[in-house]
Structure formats: structure tokens, C-alpha cells
Design goal:
34% helix; 149 residues; Aminopeptidase; alpha+beta; 7 strands; 7-stranded mixed beta sheet; single chain
């Protein structure tokens, strides 16, 4: 089930964020500890973006989330064990529905699985960067989805 995130989801969203990044991008430096990450999610990300969570209808567990800031898809993360079940596609569809005029996002260049996921869903790379625009200093790409045709 996809629903809008609540303030009370901050702990679960933090768990998803940390687990997903550790599994999918082990090469990233860990810049913040768990409590700093939770504070950022609770105080910055959740109040500053439109965020949806994917919740298991059987267990109530948060399996993933997507955060949209205007037409920028800031985050889309899943628990590692929840991948390849259509959950990311459902979250992305929710964001696309909220941004029918098009969406942009940034993805690390080395995150080839995420790049392939977004390309399968109609996103195309529009620029690349040497990492100077993100705090991880990791080369990234900007992708754009033009909206439904």
C-alpha cells in the first residue's frame, strides 16, 4: 500500500534509507551517524518534501519511500529484501502522477542498477558531474522524465 508519509514514520524511513544505501552503494562514504540521519529525515526531508511510503499490507512494515521536492525526485529507496517486487515502480508511479509535467533526479554514476531502473521507466540522462555537486564527491548524472506523452 502506498500512502503519504507521517511524521511518525521517521524511524522506519531512516531504517530503509540506511539499509538501502549500505546494500546498493557500499562505496559511499558514511558522512553522518544514524541519529544525525534520523534527525535530517525527521526535521528536513519529511517536512520539506512530498513523501510517500510503501507499507506492507500484512505486516505494516515500511518497505520503501519516495520523496518529491517540486519536480525533483529527491529520494527513492527500498529495503534490500523488498527489491524486484514492483514496490519501486509503484512509488515511482506515485511521484510521476504528482509531477505530470516531468520529473528530474540525480543518481550516482556507479549505481548502475538504479540507472537501469530509471531508464526502464522513461528517464533519460541529461548531464553528468564529477561529484563536485554532492557531499559524497561521487560522480553523478541528472536524469529527466518528460511526463506522459
Amino acid at each position: 500500500m502506498i500512502r503519504r508519509a507521517l511524521d511518525s514514520d521517521a524511524d522506519a524511513v531512516t531504517e530503509v534509507f540506511l539499509a538501502s544505501r549500505a546494500a546498493a552503494m557500499p562505496y559511499l562514504p558514511r558522512l553522518y551517524d544514524d541519529e544525525q540521519t534520523r534527525a535530517w529525515i525527521a526535521q528536513v526531508m519529511l517536512p520539506g518534501s512530498t513523501t510517500w511510503v510503501a507499507e506492507s499490507t500484512t505486516t505494516g512494515e515500511i518497505l520503501g519511500f519516495a520523496a518529491l521536492d517540486g519536480d525533483l525526485l529527491e529520494h527513492l529507496y527500498l529495503r534490500p529484501e523488498a527489491r524486484r517486487q514492483g514496490i519501486g515502480t509503484a512509488l515511482l508511479a506515485q511521484a510521476q502522477q504528482a509531477g505530470p509535467g516531468g520529473l528530474s533526479l540525480r543518481v550516482f554514476a556507479r549505481n548502475t542498477e538504479a540507472r537501469a531502473f530509471y531508464e526502464r521507466h522513461g528517464f533519460r540522462p541529461v548531464d553528468s558531474n564529477d561529484g563536485s555537486r554532492n557531499e559524497e564527491n561521487e560522480p553523478d548524472l541528472t536524469y529527466h522524465w518528460p511526463g506522459p506523452r
